[in-house]
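Example 3.2
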Amino acid sequence: MSLITVGLPVYNALPFLEESVESLLRQTDGDFKILAIDDGSTDSGLKYLRSIKDARLQVVAQPNRGLTFTLNRMLREVDTPWLMRHDADDVAVPDRVAITKRAIAQFPDAGMLYSEARYYQNGRSVGTFRTTRAKPAKLREITESGYLLAICHPTVTLNVQKAVALGGYRFDLHVEDVDLWWRMALHYDINYHPEVTTYFRHNAASVSAAHLEYQSVNTLYIQYLLLSHLHSWSPQGCESVREPLNRNLDRPRLACRDAMRRANICYSQKEYIAACRHLAKAIRASPMYFASRVFYETRAAEIALNGEDPERFLRQHDVLWPNLDKPSTPSQPESKMVTVL
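Structure, written as C-alpha cells:
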C-alpha cells in the first residue's frame, strides 16, 4: 500500500496545470497516489486530467464548492495515512516524494511536515517563501504566545488521521491553512525539513495577489481566534470584527509586500524596468520591511512569524471581546523574531 496521496485541488488552473501535474508524474520515487478534484472548472482542465493514462491518478469532478470543501473532501476520501498538498499551478521538485518519505520515517508520529518553497514563474525561481523554521517545541511556544506560523501550504504533508481529529479545514476566507496550523501546533508535533520541495508560482491572478488586503484582514481574524482560544474568550464572527481588525493592518508593510510581488513577477517575465520601478515603490513604502525581506534570503537567525503583536488586539479588548475585564498581556517568545503578515 502506498504511504502518500498527493492532494491536487483544481479550479481553472490552465495554462499551469500541465506543468504542475508533469512534475508529480516524473518523481524519482513513483510509489504514491494522486487525488485530483476538479471543483467545477470552466476551462478544459478536467478534460486534460482525464486524458492522462496513469494508474496512480484518480480524477474526481464536483460542482463548484470552494477550496475548503475540496480539501476536506480529500481528507475524507484518501486511503493512505499521509496527504501531500500540491496546488495546481505549482511545481514539485523531482525528489519531493522521496524527501517526504524520509521525513515520515524520521518523524512517524508527526501531525504535519513542511519544508522550504521557492517563488517561481516562467521557468525562473526568484526568492524564498518566508517560513517559520523551528522545531516542534518552538512552534508550539510561538503559537502559545499568540502568533501564527508562516508555512507554505503546498509544501505541507498532513497526517490524515490527526488532521481529521482536529476538524480539518475551516472557513472560506482563503486562510484555511493558517487556521489549521495553530490547531495542529497546539496538539501535535509539526516537523520542518529544510529542503526545497516546491516551486510556488507567483501568479498575478491568484487570490493572494488580487485580494491581498482582504486576505490579510482574514489572517488577523485567525490570529484573533487563536488568542480567543488561548484565553478561553468567546470570539465574534469575522464580519463583526472586520473593521477593528482592519485598523491593525500595517499598511506600509502591506504595500511593500505587494510591490515586491509585482517586481518578482515582472522580473520573471524579463520586464526589468518595470521590476525596478516596483522595487523602488517597495522601498519607499517600508524600508525596514524591505531590508528584512532581503536579509531573510541570507537565512538569518530570526524566526519568521505571521500576524501582528498580540498587544494590538488586547488594546481593543472592549470591541473584540465585549463584556470582559481588561485582559493580561500574553507572554512573548524569548527569541528574536521577525513578524510577517
